[in-house]
Write a structure and sequence with these properties.
This protein has 227 residues and is an alpha/beta fold. Helices cover 41% and strands 18% of the residues. The protein has an eight-stranded parallel beta sheet with strand order 7-6-5-4-3-2-1-8.
Length: 227
């Protein structure tokens, strides 16, 4: 327990320092704890230390954790690639979905969301580095997709998500994240009213915050290596 709590404190301190350095309001950058492949006990520990937002990549694993934590006021984010046959399960349990990259998946989530649930907050995943191995919409196709999705009443388009190609140079990290920020700003200029830039992980979090990220996704630096 002490290790996870200490790790959370360290990450939040890094976030606050980056906020100050890059002139963001204190507390404006939120932490999403990526808990995939970590046991429910680790989530319970993080929750006891004040963390409420958790990110999962796999539907069955997320469902098991939701079922176990039903009495806790947790916020569940689905951040992995989405298979069409999994959308019904995701729509039933996810508060957020970060990995929308095609209209078909968005429509299925919209149509399969239980009527008693609030609209699902979503981010459009942008393949900003053009990697064939990664999911994400091509930046040139982003606007038409966003226009289609904002008409789906069961979804609330909140922002963009990106997972750039690995890069250790800080300036190059910033340059890639700046491209995502520009896409985000372009959509807002066209009336989308987005409020979330989900980008930045353990090794590039500061660069992401420098370019406007307000939701960072951290896993190993909190929970340790995955089993």
């Amino acid at each position: 327990m002490n290790t996870i709590c200490k790790n959370l404190e360290d990450i939040i301190s890094r976030i606050r320092r980056a906020e100050q350095k890059y002139s963001h309001l204190s507390g404006s950058v939120k932490l999403l704890a990526v808990s995939k492949h970590h046991p429910i006990e680790a989530l319970d520990t993080a929750y006891a230390c004040g963390q409420i937002a958790f990110g999962e990549n796999y539907v069955q694993e997320m469902q098991a954790k939701v079922d176990t934590s039903v009495k806790k006021a947790l916020n569940w984010h689905f951040i992995g690639p989405i298979q069409s046959n999994k959308t019904k399960h995701i729509a039933a349990i996810a508060d957020w979905v970060h990995s929308i990259d095609r209209l078909k998946v968005a429509q299925r989530l919209n149509n399969q969301k239980p009527v008693e649930r609030a609209a699902i907050s979503i981010c459009l995943q942008v393949n900003i580095s053009g990697e064939t191995s990664k999911s994400g919409v091509n930046p040139n196709d982003l606007l038409p997709l966003a226009e289609e999705i904002r008409n789906l009443k069961g979804l609330k388009l909140r922002g963009l998500m990106a997972i750039p190609a690995p890069e250790n140079n800080f300036d190059k990290q910033r340059a890639t994240f700046a491209k995502v920020r520009c896409l985000y700003e372009d959509l807002n200029r066209q009336g989308f009213e987005l409020d979330t830039l989900s980008m930045g992980m353990s090794n590039d979090m500061e660069a992401a915050i420098a370019e406007g990220a307000n939701l960072v996704r951290i896993g190993t630096a909190i929970f340790g290596k995955r089993t």
